[in-house]
Amino acid sequence: MLGLIVPQCPVMGSENDQCSTESFILNPKAQILFENLRNETVYWLQPWYQLSGCLTRRLDETDEKNEEKYRSDPICKEEDEKIKKNWRKLIKKYGLPDKLISFARWKNKERSKNPNSNEERVRRFVASYLARGLERTVQQVFKYIISHLIEPSKRHYTAEEEKIMEVCFTHQPHNAVIYLSAILGREPRGIYKRLHYLFKGCKETKRLKWTIPLATKLVKSIMMHTGLPLEELKYQTFDKSVWLKVQEDMNQNYIALSKFWYTYLHVQIFANYDVKLNKLKKKVYRVLRESHYQVWTDIRWKDVLKHFPDGFTHLFLYKICSTTFVKHPNYLKIPIEKIIEIGLKKAKMIRFNNRRLKTLKLGDDGNLERVSYHLTKKKE
After folding, report:
1. Given this model, what pLDDT does residue 154 score?
2. Scanning 67, 99, 285, 377, which has the fewest C-beta atoms within 10 Å of its C-beta?
3. Which residues contact 231 (CB under 8 A, 6 or more apart)?
4. Three-class SS of residue 369?
5. What does the pLDDT read at residue 15?
6. Are 104 and 145 a contacting pair, CB within 8 Å?
7. E strands, the chain, where?
8. How far does CA 122 lie from the centroid of its chain?
9. Based on the number of CB atoms within 10 Å of its own CB, is 3 exposed (0-12), middle (13-18) or buried (19 or more)?
10. Phi-psi region at 153: left, alpha or beta (left = phi > 0; alpha = psi -120 to 50)
11. Mean pLDDT of 63-77
12. Is the pLDDT of residue 222 over 90?
């Protein structure tokens, strides 16, 4: 909602993870993975969607004649356990060190990135082995391993981190980004972007504190660049080219603008009824309790959305519930039933009872204005 400050992500990875990553990158003995698997080839029967030779490019084609279909939704807990089971089989069969996180962080520097090179064939073999028995592409499994084991930090850079960046670039200018990615637990792309801000003299865009006038400006910009009236903006997915034009009008990053629109403003405008947030959360918990989900990351929010009235978005439902648990340790991996119990317990707290969604409408003057549907209902 307007004025809400989004909580930050957790701090960088543990010291053990950083040490294991650094030793894997720097120590020649880490080549045991390559040496043990350099002559291995896929010996099991693979479905057609696991035959691609690229680990980073998503499989766009579909095989309508083939009855074998692969899943495109996020990987669930059951599949995660299958991947880890495949990894345990792999290290036992080939005598490898139990360092899955090192495989995820493996940087094939100073060697050929050609898909047919020995190093890349080994990487592809390991990823294919981990994808065995899953209705997933090898690229999906490889991406999941990278994104869930590296756990890059997305918070603002601190003064200490910037000092570490200066030291690395002073003493190891050629490999600084690789080392910084391991030490700070951040993606290389983000490090390059921060360096651009630091050394190119670019001004960093400050996060907006959303107000009704700013929200009005955003809505008018979207309407102008799409050519659609407000009523037709409901559930519309806008092309990136539209958001880039809106970015110029608002002087804010288009990703942040689209996130605010789909997560908050869309619901505030199109949910034309009185919404008690506490009551809404309880309904979400009831839906989750009746589902087959095991942990938080299993939840398919677009499916959850089907149980709610017109105007809501799946991002909004996710946000109002996730803020309840984001500070709870290890909330992503504990059983969903415990998560529901925590949520219901907090929902019973008195200070949350009367909170309502701050709904908006477009006034006669063309500007957004507050509207309280519970007061309107009482007058009627």
Report:
1. 63
2. 67
3. none
4. strand
5. 40
6. yes
7. 360-362, 368-370
8. 28
9. exposed
10. beta
11. 77
12. yes
Give Cα 116 distance to the centre of its chain.
31
For the segment 368-380, the average pLDDT, to the nearest whole number, is 69
Domain spans of the chain, in order of start: 15-149, 159-199, 277-352
Q: Does position 112 have pLDDT exceeding 90, yes or no?
A: no
Specify whether the CB–CB gap between 227 and 277 falls below 8 A: no
The pLDDT value given to residue 376: 59
Q: Is 373 exposed, middle or buried (0-12, 13-18, 19+ CB in 10 A)?
A: middle
Angle at 308 between CA 338 and CA 319, to 5 degrees: 55
Q: CA quadruple 48, 49, 55, 56: dihedral positive or negative?
A: positive
Which helix (H) or strand (E) segment holds residue 337: the answer is: helix 336-347
Give yes or no for a contact between 138 and 55, defined as CB atoms under 8 angstroms apart: yes
Which amino acid would we find at residue 185? G
- Average pLDDT estimate for 47-61: 80
Label residues 320-329 b or e (16+ Cβ within 10 Å = b).
Answer: bbeebbeeee
Give the residue carrying structure tokens 């309508």: 64
């080219």: which residue's tokens? 241
CA distances from 244 to 115, 202, 228, 230, 254 (A): 34, 19, 17, 19, 6
pTM: 0.67
Burial class (CB in 10 A: 0-12, 13-18, 19+), 293: buried
Contact 288, 304 (CB under 8 A): yes
Instruction: Give burial (CB, 10 Å; 0-12/13-18/19+) of 54.
Output: middle
Q: Other CB atoms closer than 10 Å to residue 119's CB: what's the count?
A: 17
As a whole number of angstroms, the distance between CA 192 and CA 234 comes to 37
C-alpha closest to that of 288 among 308, 271, 309: 308
Show the tokens assigned to 358.
């701050």
Residue 287: which of 348, 372, 344 has the closest Cα?
344
* pLDDT above 80 (res 115): no
φ and ψ at 201, to 5 degrees? Answer: 75, 20
Mean pLDDT, residues 105-133: 75
- 232 — alpha (psi -120 to 50), left (phi > 0) or beta? alpha
